[in-house]
Write a structure and sequence with these properties.
The protein contains 17 helices and two strands. By secondary structure, it is mainly α.
């Protein structure tokens, strides 16, 4: 008789179980978002998604383009890129919000498959990592100016403070964006009002600015193309918007107007305030030049807004404090999104390597190959696994950071097949044995006493049983061997 054994509960497992049972950390970060979890209103989700537009890299890009190619080329490049980003982002946002899928699952469903979606996730994760570093560098420059601390230490501070804010995923990010949105909007609009009121001729001077390489008021196709190339790097931002749009409530006849409004504003519509911020950055970079800021530093958001807030406050100390507060609020708002979206995008890249490295089965009986990257259900809409309170499972819930590194998230939808008590390891399967005998041999360690062969388990399902090394429930066992 084969002993079933009891699961040994050690402190690490108890802590892990308590963490998994914490509903505030559930984010459905790596799988389909069920309707029961889409509990926030359309306005709340739209507000959270639009909070990501706070990033000051937009002003930096606009300022750099204006300084290099002048006002005319920069204006047309921003308009053209905005149109492209809106048109490409609309279908992506719609299907993500309708289906409740993040970018990785959406890419699999679009036909890229497991490997293809992993490559696109790597590209997307690289985007979020680069922008996380860029936004942290902007905030570090502000801290260096105000607190006079080493720049390297400021980099570390600006990176570390984001992690606790992201660990609780969409639940805490929703609150953070809601609390900081009024402060951010006020500090964003305030300096422009004072600049235009006190220096209205700056706008007319800006429209005739030629930049380093242009001529005043002239359009240059090469400069336009170069500016478009830089601005098109923002097209990947739609992935971060999708990571929030998947929490939109299901569209019904009663809420369809609100649903479409939230989708358009927070999805492809993010580029509308984004384009305005790029143009604002171009204006502030020109204004910084007028205040004798060197051209190599005029495109820095800290210098831009320091000049702008000097129009608001007579005291340089107050202007510096307002600039630092605005930069910190802006960069925290965007970097929680960068960290959240980047962790979701990076997890499939790390997961495919881990699953393939652990896969004990390369051939199925009969010579059929079974790779971890060909599991059929991974390209489909995964079901929510059933979790028993107080126990650990084959796959854990994914929190905002995707931290549960020991969880086989990619195989979560086979969890219902598996029984919790451990069983002895399965013997190696020889490809030279006949198919029925080989299957029964592999199934033998997973059967309880008094039962015969298991049901017909093929391909991915058999792979899941072998990889888990667990016994099946009695209800899934049969009295007759497979044919």
């Amino acid at each position: 008789m084969q002993p079933t054994g009891t699961q040994r509960i050690i402190k690490i497992r108890r802590d892990y179980n308590a963490w998994v049972a914490d509903e505030t950390m559930e984010d459905y970060a790596l799988r389909f978002t069920p309707r029961s979890f889409r509990k926030w209103s359309e306005l709340r989700i739209a507000n959270t998604a639009l909070g990501a537009v706070s990033f000051l890299a937009l002003e930096a890009i606009g300022g750099a383009l204006a300084l290099s190619y002048g006002f005319t080329n920069t204006l047309w490049a921003i308009l053209a890129v905005s149109l492209v980003i809106f048109l490409t982002g609309l279908p992506i946002s719609y299907y993500a919000a309708r289906s409740g899928l993040d970018m990785d699952l959406l890419t699999r469903g679009a036909g890229f498959g497991y490997i293809g979606s992993t490559i696109t996730s790597l590209i997307y994760a690289s985007f979020t990592f680069l922008f996380f570093a860029l936004e942290a560098a902007i905030m570090a420059l502000a801290l260096e100016l105000y607190f006079n601390i080493p720049l390297a230490l400021a980099y570390v501070i600006c990176s570390i403070i984001i992690i606790p804010l992201v660990a609780y995923g969409i639940t805490l990010i929703n609150r953070l964006q809601m609390w900081t949105q009024p402060v951010w909007l006020f500090l964003l609009v305030l300096p422009y009002v004072f600049v235009i009121a006190k220096n209205p001729e700056a706008l007319s001077d800006w429209t005739s600015f030629a930049g380093r390489e242009g001529e005043p008021g002239s359009f240059n196709l090469l400069h336009f193309g170069a500016a478009c190339t830089v601005a098109l790097a923002l097209i990947t931002q739609i992935g971060e918007q999708v990571d929030y749009l998947r929490f939109l409530p299901e569209k019904t006849r009663a809420n369809r107007v609100r649903w479409w409004t939230a989708l358009l504003l927070a999805g492809p519509g993010w580029i509308i305030p984004g384009a305005l911020k790029m143009l604002a950055g171009a204006f502030l970079a020109f204004l910084a030049l007028q205040h004798e800021i060197p051209m190599e530093r005029a495109a820095e958001p800290t210098q831009m807004y320091l000049v702008a807030f000097n129009y608001v406050f007579a005291s340089p100390q107050w202007a510096l404090a307002a600039m630092v507060l605005f930069v910190i609020v802006s960069q925290v708002k965007i970097n929680v999104t960068n960290a959240y979206a980047g962790s979701l995008a990076w997890w499939p890249v790390a997961e495919i390597h881990r699953v393939q490295a652990r896969a004990p089965l390369r051939h199925q009986p009969g010579g059929r190959r079974c790779h971890a990257d060909r599991l059929p259900a991974l390209g489909a809409r995964p079901r929510r696994p059933v979790r028993r309170p107080g126990t650990s499972g084959f796959a854990s819930r994914g929190a905002g950071l995707g931290i549960p590194a020991g969880a086989a998230v990619g195989l979560a939808h086979w969890r219902a097949l598996l029984h919790r008590p451990r069983a002895p390891a399965a013997p190696a399967l020889s490809p030279h044995r006949s198919r029925p005998g080989a299957v029964r041999s592999v199934q033998q360690p997973f059967r309880r006493a008094g039962h015969r062969a298991l049901p017909r388990l093929r391909r991915a399902h058999l792979f899941a049983v072998l990889l888990a090394r667990r016994t099946l429930r009695g209800s899934l066992q049969t009295q007759s061997p497979p044919e």
